[in-house]
Amino acid sequence: MVGEEAPVDPMFRDVPPYRSPELDWEAIDRANASMEAFIKKGEDAIERGEWISHADLVAELKARYGKKHVA
């Protein structure tokens, strides 16, 4: 689920994360937060039952765009 941390190998638990000074870490953090919010919104929709099967999606796309445009 969103926000869950990956397990850390005990051997590296006390090693601080390396953050290159050449990167804009605030922008990266904002992008990560935005992606997490996007994923959470999708997870919430799934929990509410707001989803369709892959087969139904393919059928809808074929009806809308024709068979030659849908794999």
Describe this structure in words.
The protein has a domain at 26-69. It has helices at 25-47, 54-65. The mean pLDDT is 86. Helices cover 49% and strands 0% of the residues.
Name its key features:
single chain, 71 residues, mainly alpha, 49% helix
Chain-wise SSE layout:
Layout: H1 25-47, H2 54-65
Shape, principal axes of CA atoms? elongated
- Give the amount of beta strand, in percent: under 5%
* Helical coverage, percent range: 40-55%
Query: What distance separates the N and C termini?
Result: 29 Å
Short overview:
It is elongated and about 55 Å long.
